[in-house]
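As the next step, I wrote out a protein sequence along with its fold in C-alpha cell form, included below for the reader:
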Amino acid sequence: MTALAANKHIIPPNIFFIICFLFFCLEIKGQQAKTQHDNIKRTVTEASGAFKAFQKFIENDSVHWLYGGDVSLAFNATNLINVTSGEDLIGVRPVINLFANYKKGKRTFENYATLALGLLKTGERKAVKSDDRLHYTSKLGYSISPKWAYTAAFLARTQFVPGYRYSGEHITAKLNDFLAPVNMYLSIGIDYIPNKNISGMLSPVMGRATFVRSDSTDVIISAGMMTTETNANGESVQKFLNSRYEFGGGALIKFNGNLYKNKVLYSSQLELFSNYLKDPQNMEFFWISNAKIQVYKNFSANMQFELKYDDKQKIKDDTTGDLRGAKVQIKSFTGVGLFYQF
C-alpha cells in the first residue's frame, strides 16, 4: 500500500520533459530580452554621447564667431519763418554697419557690410539723395606670426537707387543706378596686424572688375567705362563698355577704435589700386572715415568724410558736353540722431 501510494505522486516522464522544455524556452527568451535591452541601452548611450560631443563641438565652434554692428538714424533740418533769405531744409540718413568675424587657431574670416541711404529736401524741390552706399568687405587670413598673416580679400561697392545731376530743379543726366556701376576687387597678399584695431594689407596681386548694368551713355561715362579706339580710317572714336577687367596691385588699410568706454566710435578704411597694364602711376584710391560721438544714451553726433579718385572717371561739361580730366571727389556729412550698437 505504501509503495502504491507513493507512486501516485510521481510525475510522469512526458510531463517532466515538457516542463523542462518550457523552462528552457523561457530562459532563452529571457536571455534574448536581456541582450536586446543591453543593445538598446548601449545604442542610446552611444547616441547620447555622440550628440553631446556634437553639441560640445558646435558650442566650442560658435565661440569663435563674433557678430555685431550698429544702426544710426541721423537728421539735419533748417526751418525759416519770416526770414528774407534762405530755404527750409530737412535731411534724413539711416546707416547700418554689420560684421561677422571668425577666428580659430591660425585661421581668420572677417566680413563687413555697410548699407546707407540719405535723402535731402530743400525748399519746394524734390528730395534728392545725399548718401547711397552698399559696401562689402571680406578677408580670409592665415597667421604666420602674431602680427603677420597671409590674406585674400574681396571688396564690392555699389549703390541702391539712381543718382542724377541737377541744374536747378531740372534733371540733366542720370549718373548711376543699382549695380551701375559695381566695382569688385579680389586680392592676395600679406596682412600686418599690430593690434586688434589696425590692419594693413599689401597686395602685389589684385584683380579689379567693373560692371555697369545700364545702356545709358551718361551712366557709362560717369563710371569711367569708355575707351578710345582707332577705326579703319585712322580716326579716334569713343567706345562705351559694360564691363572691364584690370590686373594690378594695391593695399587695404583698416582702423576701428573707440574711446571713453565706447562713447566715441571711429572707423576708417583706405583702398588703393594701381593697374599694371595701363597707366600704373595713376593710382585709384577710396578713403572713407566715420565718427560717432555719444551725446546721451542712444543719441549721438555723426560725422563722415569720403575721398575718392579714379582717373577713368572724367568730368563732363554740361555746357559743351566735352569730357574734362578726372578730379578728386570729396563728400562729407555731419548730423545728429539716434544710434544703437549691438
Notes: Residues 1-9 have pLDDT under 50 and may be disordered. The radius of gyration is 36 Å. Residues 47 and 53 are 10 Å apart (CA to CA). The chain has two domains: 12-63, 65-341.
